[in-house]
Amino acid sequence: LVRLRSRLSRSQNSLGKGLLTLLSRERLDEDTWEEVEDTLITADVGVAPTQELVERLRTRVRVLGTRTPEELRALLREELVALVDPTLDRTLHTDSHEESPGVVLVVGVNGTGKTTTTGKLARVLVADGHSVVLGAADTFRAAAADQLQTWGERVGARTVRGPEGGDPASIAFDAVKEGIAQGADTVLIDTAGRLHTKTGLMDELGKVKRVVEKHGPVDEVLLVLDATTGQNGLVQARVFAEVVDITGIVLTKLDGTAKGGIVVAVQRELGVPVKLIGLGEGADDLAPFEPGAFVDALIG
Ligand code: GDP
């Protein structure tokens, strides 16, 4: 928790504290509630969830009458945790099947942190005793395969790659084949995120998935979104969700933004949980998303 708190951007921290300060005012008048609303909307929570939250807070504060700082903190914590929905199943499915490894497709727009996330995830899995094979199916961005291979060498995972501009599906296929040959537990496949045409993306991602499924099931399709892009991330999420069944969201760069509310917005939009969060560029800066810990880090 201490690490999470120090990693979340300072502005993110001040979001939680700002809300607490507002709620601690002697008189909670209309203006104050509007400020609460503005604070949440500025943090990208989204209009509908914000209004629901403010409504619940108003009612509960009224029922509570006089409020001690401890009561307010507990109240706000409870409501924020409810907002990020602690009931969603955030289990990451990476375990192997009888005849094939667990397969994780990492998808998203280029620049969101896909390759970095794939590398960090490999590191976490290897540290947990899993054997991992990496598939460099992002053949669009020239340096992506090198970057992934560097991660692989660092953590001790073999990287399957192809020629630059090569066919992503065939690399993905080869990566899973290699995973089977090695008896690996998990194959992580970094894909290209070209968004210029939806049909292009659909063709490519759809093909990657279909081809991989010739070996066995795809267990996770993780959509990587850059938290600093705010509402734009939501638009991306919508497009990807139309193309492929997303099983989990990775929200990166939460260390660099006050817009952590996007967690709420994107989960509502897709009906899919945020499973992992990126908190920096370093190898250790990937964490499972835990609503309670996240909110605690927010409100300090
Ligand atoms: P890709 O094109 O989606 O594969 O993106 P990359 O993995 O190459 O990441 C793009 C940039 O974002 C790189 O400079 C990464 O170091 C950086 N990055 C990735 N994740 C995070 C994160 O959680 N926090 C911060 N601050 N930077 C990140």
UniProtKB/TrEMBL annotation:
Binding site residues for GTP: 108-115, 190-194, 252-255
Superkingdom field: Bacteria
GO terms under cellular component: cytoplasm; plasma membrane
GO BP: SRP-dependent cotranslational protein targeting to membrane
Chief place where the protein resides: membrane
Location in the cell: Cell membrane; Cytoplasm
Catalytic activity: GTP + H2O = GDP + phosphate + H(+)
Record EC number: 3.6.5.4
Regions crossing the membrane: none
Membrane-topology descriptor: Peripheral membrane protein
Keywords: Cell membrane, Cytoplasm, GTP-binding, Hydrolase, Membrane, Nucleotide-binding, Receptor
GO MF, any single term: signal recognition particle binding
Annotated ranges, domain SRP54-type proteins GTP-binding: 273-286
UniProt function note: Involved in targeting and insertion of nascent membrane proteins into the cytoplasmic membrane. Acts as a receptor for the complex formed by the signal recognition particle (SRP) and the ribosome-nascent chain (RNC).
Family the UniProt entry places it in: Belongs to the GTP-binding SRP family. FtsY subfamily.
Binding partners and assembly: Part of the signal recognition particle protein translocation system, which is composed of SRP and FtsY.
Protein name as annotated: Signal recognition particle receptor FtsY
Species of the source: Actinacidiphila guanduensis
Gene: ftsY
Residue span relative to the full protein: 101 to 400 of 401
